[in-house]
Amino acid sequence: MENIIEVQNLSFGFDGKTVFENINLDIKKNSKILIYGANGVGKSTFLSILASLNSATSGQIIVKENLKISYLFQNSNDQFIAPSVIEDVAFSLLVEGVNAKIAQNHATEILEKFEISHLKDRSIYNLSGGEKRLVAIAGALVRDADVYLFDEPFNELDSYKSELVLKTLKEKNRAFVIITHHKRDIFDKDTISYELFKNGLVSDLKS
Q1: Which of residues 95, 125, 144 is at a domain's end?
Q2: How many domains does one find in the chain?
Q3: Host domain of residue 123
Q4: pTM, to two decimals
Q5: What is the pLDDT of residues 7-17, one digit of tens each?
Q6: Nearest alpha carbon to residue 139 among 74, 206, 71, 68
Q7: Is residue 206 located within the same domain as residue 183?
Q8: 149 in a domain, yes or no?
Q9: DSSP structure string for 78-101
Q10: What is the mean pLDDT of residues 188-207?
Q11: Residues 127, 81: one domain?
């Protein structure tokens, strides 16, 4: 199966300090990749470089032409653009030219999956942390992308809401790269896990 993203000898540092170096990773169509590790090893930075939101110090990333990427920030507030829940979740569809009514219908459907459709007319900034997280995830998942880059998607979610999100992730037959502090087999046997260290990614052979 062809690669949709190839990471080659990627390194990042600042102020003379190396955060990580020599990262190599092939992401194939429908890959389910989990990257975990200790605080400060650069997990979020690596994901942001994958999404072209940050620049590497050296190395390169080869991306398949016209690849559609959907990104979830670690901080939910960084995700929001529109003032109300329904407007924000529908925003990416509207940008892509989807009819407004259809976009709102799709947004409502995913809010219903997360059991928060009753919040659709609420201001985002008046929500709890867990509610904000669900809205941010809904906004990232509502559009059809080739790869979803998610930074700590289960932050601030209880076990029940985490399962609702996980069920929706599994329904997407697309590639995922998920950053987390702790190893977990999010996609069960399909999860390919890597631990990130300063000197690169180490594959978890048990996954």
Answers
A1: 144
A2: 2
A3: 69-144
A4: 0.95
A5: 999 999 999 89
A6: 71
A7: yes
A8: no
A9: GT--SSBHHHHHHHHHHHTT--HH
A10: 84
A11: yes
